[in-house]
Amino acid sequence: MAIIERPAAVPATVGSVAAPEVVTPTQALGVFRRPVSSSGWKSWLFTVDHKKLGIMYGAVALFFFLVGGVEALLIRLQLAAPDNTVLSADQYNQMFTMHATTMVFLFVMPMAAAFANYFLPLQIGARDVAFPRINALGFWLFLFGGLFLNSSWLLGGAADGGWFMYSPNSSALFSPSHGIDFWVLGLQITGIASLIGALNLIVTVLNMRAPGMKLMQMPVFTWMVLVVQFLLLFAMPVITVALFLLSFQRNFGATFFDVNQGADPLLWQHLFWIFGHPEVYIIILPSFGIISEVLPTFARKPLFGYKFVVFSGAAIGFVGWGVWAHHMFASGLGPVSVAVFSVATMLIAIPTGVKIVNWTLTLWGGKLWFTTAMLYAIGVIVLFTIGGVSGVTHAVAPSDTQQTDTYHIVAHFHYVIVGGAVMGLFSGFYYWWPKMFGKMLSERLGKWNFWLMFFGVNLTFGPMHILGLQGQPRRMVVWPEKLTGDGFFDMHFWNQVASVGSFVIGLGVLIFVINIFWTWKKAPLAPLDPWDARTLEWITASPPKEHNFDRIPTVHALDEFFHRKYEEMDTEDGPRLVKVKSAEEVLAEEESHADAHIHLPSPSYWPIVLSAALPIIAYGVIYNLMLSVIGTAILLLAVFGWCLEPSVADDSDYDPPAGGDSTKELATLG
Amino acid sequence: MDRSKETVSTLGRMPSTRRHWSRAALLTSVGLMLAGCANNAPQDIFEPKGENSKKIDTLQRPVFYIAGVVALIVIGVVGYAMWKFKDRGQDIPEQTHGNPKLEIALTILPAIILAGISVPTVITVFQLDKKTDAECIINVTGQQWWWEYDYATGQCGDVKIDKPIVTAGELVIPEKTNVLLRITSRDVIHSYWIPALNGKRDAVPGRLHTLRMQADQPGIYTGQCTEFCGLSHSRMRQAAVALTAGDFQKWVDNQMKDYVAPEAGSLAAEGEAVFTANCSKCHQINDLKNADGSPVLSEPDLYVVPGVAPNLSHLMNRTAFAGWTFDLLTDECRVKLWNAKPADFGAMYLKGITPECFEQVALRDWLRNPPGMKPMFVDPNNLSSTGGKYRGMPNLNLKPDQIDQLIAYLLGRN
Amino acid sequence: MFTTGSKLFLGATALSIVSAIVFGASVGGSAGMLGTIGLISVSVVFAFLAGINLFTRDGNLAATESDVERNAAAAQAGVGRSMWPLAAALGAGGLVVGTISKPVVFKVSFIVLLAAAAEWMVQGFSERVSADSKYNEGIRKRLLHPLEFPLLASVGAAVFIYSFSRIMLNIDKDAGRWVFMVIGAIITAVGFVFAAKRGMGKSTVAGIITVGALALVGVGIASAVSGQHPIEPHPAATAAVCLGTASEVQIEEVDAKASQSVAAKSNPLANVYLTSDEQLYALNTGIGNVQYHEITVPRSNAVHVLFHNDSAEPRRLTVHLGTFKAKDGSEGSEEAECTTALEKGGTAFLSFKINKSQLASSTPYRLTVPGVEDQEIKLLVP
Amino acid sequence: MADIAVHDVDHAHTDHGGYDDHAPHATSTGLTNNKLSMWLFLGSECLLFGGLISTYMLYRGRHQTGPGPDQIFDIPLTSVSSFILLMSSLTMVLAVNSAKRKDDRNTSLWLTITALLGALFVGGQVYEFTSFYHEGLGFTTSLFGSSFYTLTGFHGVHVTLGIIMLMVVVFIMQRDRITGDKAEVVELVGLYWHFVDVVWVIIFTLVYLIPS
User: Fold this and answer.
1) Among residues A113, B100, C236, D9, which is most buried (max CB within 10 A)?
2) Domain spans, chain B
3) Interface test with B, best of C271, C300, C327, C354 (most B CBs within 10 A)
4) How many percent of chain B have pLDDT more than 70?
5) Which residues of A touch B107 (CB under 8 A)?
6) Separation CA C364–CA C381 (nearest Å)
7) What does the alpha-carbon distance between residue B166 and residue B147 come to, in Å, rounded to a whole number?
8) C236 touches D at CB < 8 Å
9) Which residues of chain C does D160 touch, with a Cβ-Cβ cutoff of 8 Å?
10) How do beta strands B165-168 and B190-192 pair?
């Protein structure tokens, strides 16, 4: 990212001593110069621009989505026939562990982070996030953590304990490969990414809103992201503790889960689910935010009950802390805890219901425009409702003891996560693609994409309800031709339907990928405001300039952009909304008052260097601690290099060097 | 999702030939598909066969109905709105921001429904956790990948048990009796589940959890380990067999009876020697004696991680083996036993595995190469993490004639 | 021609190859292997860097023009004083000494050499960057501060912490507390005095603090050399203690200040109570209030029993774990485990695992309380 | 543990946001970005220590082998070290005060004193750990060993990182590298330092004092 306002270039002379044609510092310093390029691969590698980082987050998350998808297809292929042998038991266990881990930690969360990164500053009218380098660090940690995690496939097998990694099955005695070590350390690394991302975005939202924007005037997406960041802020340290305990046990012989020493394996379950349940809302709320933007836009009316939606989101985030033990109704907690958590879990259905009601009422009386984004958003309402009500059936604890760990649960949470979270993210893709890339994804391919995915999801996960209620447990590498003892149990049909369905989803995703490439190569430029949108991110160019806004917009209302375009006019038929300005006119007005001084931070080497140190330390923990020492040295170097680095590059970093009496300040510390 | 009981229960148990019929249904029509789904499913959670599961059923059935209705209403409203408010060139609607009264009403409505559900839920939770009225106590211990049952000494229903009984895979209980299972584990977490009799309860090492079991009538009720427990999680099954008090007494008597040594010189006697030499390291057969008259004591704690292996004293009184995964009964006999009327069931079950009903194939395969049938952690070259112990049964490299002898011997263990 | 930078790296390459050979030849075993591999990798890295420097001409095409090099102001300016050659020489000397004496000397010297080389290199490099010595200094700082600051801070802190802990280990345990307190008080007091005496120069203050810290480090090193005060390991409960056959002193040592309470009491197999009139009974988990004197314990199962002592005497719960023949066929002695002796109202966990059937043991498995006659809970192990 | 270093230092120090450098206080909450993020970070840390303390409390008294807490704790010694750590909070306050008064000399002085007191505390902890180890309590000995060393070790690492941060601030101040708001930097380190002290008070109470 370049600095917008640079001191005027002065002749390239340095030094006061003789010899006019001395070596210029930039040339002599060679590689030690700070990166300043605003184009080319370096501009991506060392960028601190939230938009570039958002795009990279998205691209990497999509890559992991495909990886996790292939894992899912292999699982369904294995389960397509009785006593199948596509995968061995060991491979199958690795496959479902990594499918869940990849989808949760390496796809849905970072994809939400991608949207948050890109759109949150735009939606609140900021030029960047509060800590751009930390933002970059978060991305690189996520990428390196994800790669580290997946490198276990090549180094003796991936983790095989399920994503919930219950102890003592996760101890070295029962899982001797390094898979779980990779899992623990990989999640530790991506966990840091989430934590610092959370700090960054919370500060950004709380501190850097455009003038006039009150909290209750923030777009719902921003609100939901804010709630999610608070959840992350408090949930990540808990899983960090759990992961530390596990890795100390596996790598250094600690006794935390050693039953023979008197340990209680439920400790892990509590720690994991205290993190794990908020995690569910971490996954789903960004998607709720996205469709709360998409529905009003395409219904041409504001979100019904904005305050209720916001408060119910916050309520979900809050109550979400008090329900973790509903994952443990069969774990033997005792009746009092079970009863309390059962009722608390029912409570959380209320704010969720509020959201669904409000989305439905947003559609009511609108002027509905069925774009692909809109279809996905409506798909979320429908599928999430199904997932939600099946969720209520397991909030009833006694009923849950019959359903938990069966395919009924698999059906439930896939309706919630695929139907709720993933479909919401796809809605976001179609809605915001023109903003991010200046080109619209093909609506024709998009419709194909949507309908294939919608039917695929129902075909895959619908039958799982039935399988579960008929008593098929989860995580079974095979379902037998005949079950022992009876010989009548027919699991064939619905298992096969589910397998077919999964490939329909796969086809849908393939069409999406094709759509991306088609759009990239063939699509014409998109209009400035293709959807007649409502929020701040559309009051700027598509894609936005590096500094986002030429002038920081002043906010007067919720749906600021809409109110700049439309005004209520009195006509013969009473008051009517009339378009008074086009998007281009609104933008032109902003540009004509462009700010004179805009400072943006310069790119930096340190985020990528720092984040590269962590996998080195992690490999060291697994293989040889000397490697960790080297990693730590790199880490320390990077941390302090970071701290001593000015926010804006030295003049001498530019070619030709600016030099002269720079007035630029260093960062607050060093 | 909201599968109603009607389709399930009216069809009843279906003979195995109907399976092919349902396969045809796959290709034909939706109606037939539904019938396919309603095929007999012994682990169906909507077919309670005991007091506890019936309590759960009474609670969950209305919840499922309500859930279904709510989902249908929401989807219906969304569908109607999509049709009704489609963009047909109408004006941009009024920019209303909501209707607080409606909102509050729609918040309170689900709250009332949920409050209505929560009261019976809490009551049922406490009812199902009652521990003071047990008439029989059985310790249930899970390990990779099978279940062990220890009958504690004392009363069990009307029957007195004098010395501890140890068995595996098949839990035998007296009917109409409140049995309290005390569930734990020797290695990783497992979960004990007999859907027809009660919900599941995790077996957590170092902890003891209780689970009530009560069956209304004699019969066999299947279930499966439901907590992921490693390689052969999918091949860790269990069943509960309920018998009348009289039949249960007979079963206990049989468990207590003295060891029946095979006739000297018979194939089975050779099998006894093979067993003592190879199998008795881990598997206990009660009262089996060495040549010098000393008892043969198994020492599984030296060879396998959980420190136990199934007690085989009465193997042929069980209908399946190896984590209750492979049948000992032929298909024909199994169907007969399964379809037996409650009144006849006990007698038929207590006969055990008779030679004519004995399904040898699986047992032979098992003796030839156990890990080939059920994935286990038994590669002798790869035991560094377990200190040289196996998790599961290794391949003992038995010769075909040794297998013949063993089969003959084991057939007498009833 | 070779550029300045590449000369340096070529030299370093040669040096590291030589040291790899010397080291590999002189030090054997896995440490030697590791060290040699390390040194070889270092030489590869240096060679690589030398190659890059040669290829890029130190990143500067102009640098190859000898004119520019000669005319550059920095090339003519006097080279400033530098402590790095001295440090490097010390390090190299230590390295040689280290190979024949203690490995720790070798390691420290190696680190010193490495640090000196790095500092020297960067200093040398930065002195030639431009004609502006102030600017050159800036470059040096920019490159080295990220390394120096954290290293100095952490090394300084580590040396201080280590020295102080050695002093504490060296002196008497009771005196230690006073020393601890006094040092803390002195540091704080010095802070207040210096804060008040504004007349003192910065460097005076820094000097005094440094001298003080160095003194502490010196004493610390001396303490480390002289060793530590005796620390006795706590005796563990043996079968003899549990069975009450050990000497009084032994038993007392085991019980000294034993813990009396547990935080979590979830799901033991049984709660064992010793009543105030010294009756022993068990409550079986999962079954109401029935007093048991016989518990069926599955084999090979980690079993937790929670012991509550309500009698007035300090009592322990002992589990008798049977008597087994030793491998050579001789009769073994009875095995047992126990809790520490609990005061009235104390609770403690007793965990045990019985692997063999009761038939294998010549004595019964049971729970008893030493000192309480005729009270026991039988453990049935099928 | 290294990753904790990352958070700490990130939040103690700063980055420049998109806003104009010349108006660093123009935030919606009035708190600077750095200070807000430090508060949030400490909130997050509360749950980290919460998890560790819960683990310790859950396993209190459940160890099977090795010495128990009452047998090895040297309460007088730990009381002294706790007091020293508390004193360092006082000297930290003085440092922040001096920094606000733009008194560079005393700021450096008090920061150094704080760092020395912190180092004294950690030295005491190293001594304590060494003693415990020789008394038979290793990291892998028992549940008590594992959970005790993990909890107090995590705290010790936090103090150590704090010391390094203090020292680096002193170095940087000596070399005039802070051109921004010095007082704020000192205050941020101070916030962290006080947090670590408060956590120690909780640990000292729950771990050392309650079981005896």
Assistant:
1) A113
2) 5-37, 136-255, 267-318+353-411
3) C300
4) 90
5) 308, 350, 353-354
6) 10
7) 11
8) yes
9) 154, 157, 161
10) unpaired
Neighbours of A411 (CB within 10 A): 26
Which chain A residue's Cα is nearest to D61?
Answer: A262
Question: Model confidence over C199-213: pLDDT tens digits?
Answer: 877 788 888 888 888
Among A469-473, B134-138, C3-7, D1-5, which stretch is predicted with the lowest mean pLDDT?
D1-5
Q: What is d(CA A437, CA A425) in angstroms, rounded to the nearest whole number?
A: 17
**Helices and strands, number each (H, E), in chain C:** 11, 10
What is the Rg, in whole angstroms, of the alpha carbon atoms belonging to chain D? 19
Task: State the fold for domain D2-9+29-209.
Answer: Four Helix Bundle (Hemerythrin (Met), subunit A) (1.20.120)
* C98–B contact, CB cutoff 8 A: no
d(CA A122, CA A542): 12
**Which CA distances in Å does D50 have to A325, B369, C182, C247?**
18, 50, 33, 44
pLDDT tens per residue, range B139-158 = 999 999 999 999 988 888 88
Residue C28's SS3 state is coil
> CATH code for A48-263+606-647?
1.20.210.10
- Å between A344 CA and nearest CA of chain D: 22
Most C-contacting residue of D8, D55, D62 (CB-CB within 10 A), to test interface? D62
Q: What pTM did the predictor assign?
A: 0.88
Percentage of chain A beyond pLDDT 90 is 64
Neighbours of C244 (CB within 10 A): 15
CA of A357: how far to CAs of A102, A362, A389, in Å?
32, 9, 14
Q: Does domain C239-380 have CATH number 2.60.40.420?
A: yes
Residue A262 tokens, joined: 């008197």
Output the DSSP codes for C245-291. -S-HHHHHHHHTT-----S-----SEEEEE-TT--EEEEETTS-S-E
pLDDT in tens, A291-308: 999 999 999 999 999 999
- Nearest CB to D19 within list A198, A208, A632: A208
Structure tokens that stand for C135 in this block: 């600017």
Residue C66 has pLDDT above 60, yes or no: no
Q: Which of D110, D38, A493 is nearest to B37 (CA)?
A: A493
Please tell me the distance from the alpha carbon of residue C129 to that of residue A26, in angstroms, as a whole number. 9
Give the neighbours of chain A: at least 3 Cβ pairs within 8 Å. Answer: B, C, D
Q: What average pLDDT does the structure give for chain A?
A: 86
Q: Which chains touch D (3 or more CB pairs under 8 A)?
A: A, C
Q: Choose among B150, B210, B295: nearest Cβ to C298.
A: B150
In CATH, A290-478+492-524 is 1.10.3470.10? no
More confident residue, C22 or A321: A321
Please tell me which of the candidates A206, A240, A597 has its beta carbon nearest to residue D20: A597
Q: Note the pLDDT tens digit of each residue in B14-53.
A: 444 444 444 443 444 344 344 344 446 788 888 899 999 9
**Which CATH class name applies to B136-255?**
mainly beta
Chain A contacts of B353, Cβ < 8 Å?
Answer: none
Strand B320-321 versus strand B326-327 pairing type: antiparallel
8 Å CB contact of A665 and D21: yes
- Please state, in angstroms and rounded to a whole number, the distance separating the CA atoms of residues D194 and C301: 47
Q: Round to whole Å and give the CA distance between A13 and A657.
A: 9
Location of structure tokens 């000399």: D105
Q: Which of residues 158-217 of C touch D (CB under 8 A)?
A: 160-165, 168-169, 173, 176-177, 180-181, 183-184, 187-188, 190-191, 194-195, 198, 202, 205, 209, 213
Q: How many residues are given for chain A?
A: 670
Higher pLDDT, residue A582 or C87: A582
* B61 contacts: CB under 8 Å, gap ≥ 6: B5, B46
CATH T-level fold of B267-318+353-411: Cytochrome Bc1 Complex; Chain D, domain 2 (1.10.760)
